[in-house]
């Protein structure tokens, strides 16, 4: 439910977590008992060194971890920090075993930071506040809406006719799910999220407070006097599975086609995605980015904070864009791009930008001309072999 067809393929190289060893979610008593190191390895993998029966209760920084904590070390070069470490267990990279064997226990894995992320998710699930299934008495749910029996609709939320709330989904307090919208299984809408009519959100997504999905795109024609004439935005927004969207983001509905955010995309706070934009799977976008209408962004891209992306251009897969860059032309080749340009009149800016792209060649030509000018005054250059 709620998965857009364009977002259905799995990400290359993705490694979903193995099956849960024990269901401890929303059970504070079990959460306080912690996790055995052996159970962590059974679920998340890695090579165990030392005592697998030891129990840890939280993830902590290496410098201040105690006997009930598990910490992580990302680089072999820092293995000396394990000497005197008080952690009950440390996640370490290959090559750190000689230092790690002095610890009560250790887990050796190629990517300790990724392992930490997955372990932290497990700990967070165990202590997350419970969302009881059902519809709060103050919520307004239309009789023509379909809400799964184990879904949760919070205080003051509104669910309009034809909307579908999937199994285990959570609609937070004062959120709004419009007519014929769909919320996939296990998706969390934090308080004050707005999903406008006809929009679809996939499974296991997280939308933080203030997110607005399906607001009108910025579409206007100019009449003979220069006044704006609104163009109805008749598309919708389709969001794939496992997408996270930060607080106070806006994703506009399409003018004719749909705006599409593919599986696994991660979006930081205060990002604006305009109408008809398409974002490929597992791309990550930092805060305060603005993406203009009909831009096409590839898969597995990393876009730094404050980046501006002009409309109707294309960005290839696996592109990294540095923070505060302005993308004014398509990027057809993977790689790392960075650049900003001072504000100027449009004519000067376009002329200077065109020259700047050939700056390296101009530098070489100037050096060559300088060598030619200096040659008559350089006896060594005039000597014949």
Describe the structure.
About 7% of the residues have low confidence. With 385 residues, the chain is α/β, with parallel strands linked by helices. A hairpin with a 5-residue loop joins β22 and β23. The longest helix has 16 residues. 36% of the residues are buried. It has an eleven-stranded parallel sheet with strand order 8-11-14-17-20-25-28-31-34-37-39, with no helix packed on it. It folds into three domains: 100 residues, Udp-n-acetylmuramoylalanyl-d-glutamate--2,6- Diaminopimelate Ligase, Chain: A, domain 1 (3-Layer(aba) Sandwich); 204 residues, Hexapeptide repeat proteins (UDP N-Acetylglucosamine Acyltransferase, domain 1); 37 residues. It contains seven helices and 39 strands.
CATH class type of the largest domain: Mainly Beta
Number of helices: 7
User: Any idea how many domains?
Assistant: 3
The CATH topology of the largest domain is: UDP N-Acetylglucosamine Acyltransferase, domain 1
Number of strands: 39
């Amino acid at each position: 439910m709620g998965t857009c067809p364009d977002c259905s393929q799995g990400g290359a190289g993705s490694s979903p977590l193995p099956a849960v060893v024990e269901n401890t979610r929303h059970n504070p008593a079990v959460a306080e008992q912690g996790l055995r190191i052996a159970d962590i390895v059974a679920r998340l993998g890695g090579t165990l060194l030392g005592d697998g029966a030891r129990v840890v209760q939280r993830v902590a920084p290496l410098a201040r971890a105690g006997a009930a904590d598990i910490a992580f070390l990302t680089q072999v070069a820092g293995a000396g920090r394990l000497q005197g470490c008080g952690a009950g267990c440390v996640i370490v990279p290959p090559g750190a075993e000689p230092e790690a064997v002095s610890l009560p226990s250790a887990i050796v894995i190629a990517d300790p930071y990724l392992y930490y992320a997955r372990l932290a998710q497990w700990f967070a699930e165990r202590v997350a506040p419970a969302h009881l299934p059902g519809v709060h008495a103050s919520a307004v749910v239309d009789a023509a809406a379909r809400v799964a029996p184990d879904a949760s609709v919070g205080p003051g939320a509104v669910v309009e006719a034809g909307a579908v709330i999937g199994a285990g989904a959570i609609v937070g307090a004062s959120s709004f799910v419009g007519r014929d919208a769909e919320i996939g299984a296990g998706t969390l809408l934090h308080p004050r999220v707005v999903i406008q009519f006809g929009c679809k959100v996939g499974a296991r997504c997280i939308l933080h407070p203030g997110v607005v999905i399906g607001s009108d795109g910025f579409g206007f024609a100019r009449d003979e006097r220069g006044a704006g004439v609104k163009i109805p935005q008749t598309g919708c927004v389709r969001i794939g599975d496992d997408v996270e969207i930060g607080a106070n983001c806006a994703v506009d509905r399409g003018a004719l086609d749909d705006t599409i955010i593919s599986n696994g995309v991660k979006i930081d706070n205060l990002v604006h995605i305009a109408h008809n934009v398409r974002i490929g799977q597992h791309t990550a976008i930092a805060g305060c980015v603005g993406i203009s209408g009909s831009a096409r962004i590839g898969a597995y891209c990393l876009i730094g904070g404050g980046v501006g992306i002009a409309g109707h251009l294309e960005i290839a897969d696996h592109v990294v864009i540095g923070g505060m860059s302005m993308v004014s032309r398509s990027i057809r080749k993977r790689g790392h791009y960075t650049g900003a340009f001072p504000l100027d009149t449009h004519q000067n800016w376009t002329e200077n930008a065109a020259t700047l792209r050939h700056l390296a060649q101009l530098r070489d030509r100037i050096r060559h001309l300088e060598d030619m000018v200096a040659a008559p005054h350089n006896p060594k250059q005039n000597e014949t072999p």
